[in-house]
Design a protein that fits this description.
The complex is a heterodimer of chains A (655) and B (257). Chain A has 655 residues and is of the alpha+beta class. The termini of chain A are far apart. Chain B is of the alpha+beta class and 257 residues long. Chain B has two domains: 15-106 and 233-252, no CATH class; 116-218, no CATH class. In chain B, a hairpin with a 2-residue loop joins strand 10 (225-227) and strand 11 (230-232). The longest helix of chain B has 23 residues, at 13-35. The chains are: A alpha+beta (655), B alpha+beta (257).
């Protein structure tokens, strides 16, 4: 001890510096202290100026605000029918309380009632003819291909600082019409927008935004998982299979395909010990058998740059290693995930890594049997928890303005478990109870000067029968296949466009092959109205052998959509009856053997039917007397509440 | 240390100092890695970064900024607590290494043509008569000055050769001379020391307890190293190069600091 004391008290003055490592720590710590003081001081210095500027903008608001803060909680796919059913059994007490304090209504959705369309109308307050999103997929009319409706990826050549030209990928948000929070920003009202679908790539706003549905994974897809196993890789939908090669006793090596498919992140799996261990370029992680790992950071080299992704793993017998889609790492995003760009870094630092992919829940892996129901629900629970943390942070940090957060979990769970029913403990019932508890927690955080809206973009129903609209068009003479072609797998390969008058694409759209609009159109524009009416009329008679009507109402694009982009929408929107939906292959341009066939996928609930059958929910913390509100009414209502007059182009009306 | 510096014996002192600094930086960063909770440090640093970003994101709200700043300070304390353990582990080798380097690179050998004063402190001042000072490999400049009140004798020396010694009143001391070329100890004096003091003050030649001399000092000039047009002390050179190698080591070995 004496020697130690001597050592410390009689050390050279140089010993005040305690070496690289800890020395950096002390330095960092000092800088943090200085930084905290400086920013606090700056904030105080600028606050009066910023407040004055903001106040002057806010004072220009034409209406008297009804609330200091408006909170909108989006619960994707929450069905009013199920809510009312559970109320009858005394469940969902928080939603009940909210409905009694304020108002509960069924919320009209868009045509069709699918998330990209409905959430686009939610944020813009207009019909799809004005925002240009008509489905998940849109037709590339020149090439007869299905493309993503909301984002276009292109490349452009730019001149670098050194004068060298380089090509870069540019992603453009295709949703037209401005979201209502952009109008709020003009009047100094700040917004925090979390995971609202169709907000990728993020647009600038006065506040913060984290993009939702349509954020791609590192491979550029809307979510493709990886399965690593021994044996020859097999092609599969929604994922990639990679090979695990034996590499010693109980050891395996493999690679996870990265951003351009060929860039692999090498992994080594050691299943010999008590705890299986996965090693990768960035480190290693212990895995438990049959359990999802925490988020693991993976690195890929792309054009000399390191690109970071995050994924979760699950190891099962075989061994088979399941790896979720490669999410963009929010702490070092390779793509802009929000506005400002460091918003995702802030959230990742506060709460740890979180799912960033647009469609997070791995429905394909469950459908393909690579994960089980329990794992899927575990994944959903993790995503829900991450989302709630960021929502809570936004609520605590933004006492005024607008806070919006969308939870996708109810939608995915209902898609995958509708067929399992709603008995006690079923995934759907549990999810509804979780959402109710969330509503309760949010209500507790509301102040007297706040208003709350809880809404869903659509409801839900069963999906037991696939309708192959392309087959129907073929059998009714509107589509013709080339000589010798009986069926088409995808992308209309084998369709004779010189004789085809109509084709189906997406979840709810039939298009006429119009001359001048389509690449090889044959129908004169003048003949379109008569042809659409004829097809819609015939579709109304489509029935099952038992006599059940398949189409509840075939709507015409010209009647449903009004606005500058209405011409880009489908010509006919075949609104199916409960239980029927466009068949799997038909969505991307396939032509099957039968018009009607059973849906044998795990995905057995849906909402791509007639929109009147799948209305959403709307809870407001205040009373109103609008009998049949619609999702396009939300934007003008929100603007009105925060004192901003809705612009005249909005189709909705304030509640 | 001497063995470590053996390859640089015939090179300029700077090369040995540079090599030690680079090796030391990497070793220290590895000690830091293995003695700290890297996961916790990573998490807390990430949270601190987020709080700093949070302050920027909410600049419009001083209340939120102050809350974030307070949380940042608390995190900072927690961070400092996290690095106490590695700091303690690093402190011991650092102090010992710094002392050893100071003895080797802190001073120049007694220069040619520039007299250096050597002062010896005695238990009992020896008699002036018959007191002689001789040098082996070093030139001693008379006279010898006696300071009775301090029990000290002083004289000057110059032109030291490697391994030079001075014998004064029968006591032989190695002073200001490099015995084995670049990287060997240059004594700036002598003292009676215990084992711990010897480790911390290797620039002093050890005197046996029975020696009539209690201590000796030599006013040897400080060594300076030319880098980028400036003349820097060994400590500056060491800090800069060990830090650079630690930064590189942290990147290579993925150390969260």
């Amino acid at each position: 001890m004496k020697a130690l004391l001597v050592l410390f008290f009689f050390a050279l003055p140089a010993a005040a510096y305690i070496g690289p490592g800890a020395g950096f720590g002390i330095l960092t710590s000092f800088l943090v202290f200085v930084n905290a003081l400086a920013v606090s001081l700056l904030s105080f210095l600028f606050w009066p100026v910023l407040t004055l500027v903001r106040r002057s903008r806010m004072n220009r608001r034409p209406l008297k605000p009804a609330a200091k803060r408006l909170v909108i909680l989006g619960l994707d796919g929450l069905s009013p029918v199920l809510v009312e059913k559970m109320w009858e059994k005394g469940e969902l007490p928080n939603m009940k309380r909210l409905s009694e304090q304020g108002t509960f209504r069924h919320l009209g959705t868009t045509t069709p009632g699918v998330s990209p369309v409905a959430w686009s109308s939610f944020q813009t307050g207009v019909n799809p003819g004005k925002h240009g999103i008509f489905d998940f997929l849109a037709p590339d009319r020149k090439r007869y291909l299905a493309v993503l409706s909301s984002v276009r990826t292109s490349s452009e050549t730019v001149k670098g600082i050194t004068g060298r030209r380089k090509t870069r990928t540019v992603q453009t948000l295709l949703r037209k019409s401005a979201p209502f929070w952009s109008y709020l920003g003009r009047y100094g009202v700040r917004s925090t927008i979390l995971r609202v679908p169709i907000t990728y790539p993020p647009e600038p706003l006065d506040g913060h935004l984290l993009s939702g549905m349509c954020v791609p994974d590192l491979r550029g897809s809307q979510g493709s998982y990886t399965v690593l196993k021994t044996g020859e890789p097999e092609p599969m939908t929604g994922g990639v299979q990679a090979r695990l090669t034996p590499d010693g006793d109980h050891r395996f090596a493999g690679g996870i395909p990265g951003p351009d498919g060929s860039l692999h992140c090498r992994v080594r799996l050691d299943v010999g010990g008590k705890t299986p261990r996965l090693s990768h370029s960035g480190g290693s992680v212990n895995l438990d058998w049959n359990a999802l790992s925490p988020w693991v950071t993976l690195e890929f080299s792309l054009s000399g740059k390191k690109v970071r992704g995050i994924a979760r793993f699950r190891l099962t017998e075989g061994p088979t290693l399941y790896c979720t889609a490669l999410h963009v790492d929010p702490s070092k995003p390779a793509l802009p995930l929000g506005h400002p760009v460091h918003y995702s870094r802030y959230l990742a630092g506060m709460q740890g890594p979180f799912a960033t992919l647009g469609l997070v829940e791995d429905t394909w892996a469950l459908s393909n049997g690579h994960i089980d129901d329990g794992t899927f629900m575990e994944q959903c629970a993790g995503i829900f928890s991450e989302r709630e943390k960021m929502f809570s942070d936004a609520l605590s940090k933004n006492p005024t303005g607008l806070v919006v957060c969308v939870f996708d979990t109810p939608d995915r769970v209902q898609h995958m478990f509708w067929g399992s029913g709603f008995k006690e403990g079923s995934p759907i019932r549990t999810t509804y109870a979780d959402m109710d508890a969330l509503v309760g927690r949010v209500m507790e955080k509301m102040k007297k000067t706040d208003l709350l809206m809880v809404l869903s973009d659509h409801g839900f129903t069963s999906f037991h029968t696939c309708v192959d609209f392309n087959r129907w068009l073929l059998e009714n003479g509107y589509m013709v296949l080339k000589e010798g072609v009986k069926t088409v797998g995808t992308s209309y390969m084998g369709v004779d466009w010189e004789k085809t008058r109509a084709y189906a694409l997406g979840l709810a759209g039939i298009n006429i092959n119009v001359r001048g609009r389509e690449g090889m159109g044959i129908v004169e524009p003048g003949e379109v109205p008569a042809l659409t009416a004829e097809i819609a009329g015939k579709l109304a008679h489509l029935a099952t052998p038992e006599g059940d009507r398949v189409i509840r109402r075939a709507r015409l694009g010209t009647e449903e959509y009004k606005g500058p982009y209405a011409k880009d929408g489908p010509d006919i929107i075949p609104g199916t009856s409960r239980g029927f939906r466009a068949g799997w292959n038909c969505v991307t341009g396939g032509v099957g053997e039968k018009v009607l066939y059973p849906n044998e996928q795990h995905w057995n609930g849906d909402h791509s039917c007639d929109p009147d059958l799948v209305k959403g929910v709307l809870f407001t913390s205040w009373k109103h007397d609008t009998p049949e509100p619609s999702i396009i009414d939300i934007a003008p209502t929100a603007l009105g509440i925060l004192g901003v007059a809705p612009p005249p182009h909005m189709d909705g009306s304030p509640l | 240390m001497t063995a470590l510096l053996a390859p640089f014996r015939n090179s300029p002192p700077f090369s040995g100092l540079l090599a030690i600094s680079l090796v030391f930086g990497v070793i220290m960063i590895l000690i830091f890695k293995f003695t700290s909770n890297q996961k916790a440090i990573g998490a807390i640093r990430s949270r601190m970064g987020a709080r700093a970003l949070g302050m920027l994101l909410h600049l419009h709200s001083p209340v939120t900024v102050i809350k974030a700043a307070t949380a940042l300070m608390v995190d900072n304390l927690s961070y400092l607590w996290r690095i106490v353990t590695p700091m303690l582990f690093i402190a011991v080798p650092f102090i010992l290494t710094a002392a050893a380097l100071d003895a080797r690179y802190g001073s120049m050998p007694v220069p040619r043509g520039i007299p250096t004063t050597v002062t010896l402190t005695w238990d009992e001042l020896p008699a002036r008569e018959g007191f002689t000072v001789t040098g082996a490999g070093i030139t001693v400049i008379e006279p010898v000055v006696f300071v009775d009140t301090l029990r000290q004798t002083s004289f000057r020396v110059q032109n030291a050769s490697p391994g030079a010694t001075v014998t004064a009143g029968g006591v032989t001391l190695p002073i200001g001379a490099s015995a084995e070329g670049s990287g060997s100890v240059i004594y700036r004096g002598a003292a009676r020391m215990n084992a711990a003091e010897r480790l911390l003050k290797p620039f002093l030649a050890p005197l046996p307890p029975e020696s009539p001399v209690t201590g000796a000092t030599a006013s040897i000039p400080e060594a300076r190293y030319s880098i980028l047009g400036g003349r820097w002390s060994w400590l500056t050179v060491f800090l800069v190069y060990s830090s650079l190698s630690a930064i590189a080591g942290a990147a290579v070995f993925k150390v969260k600091v």
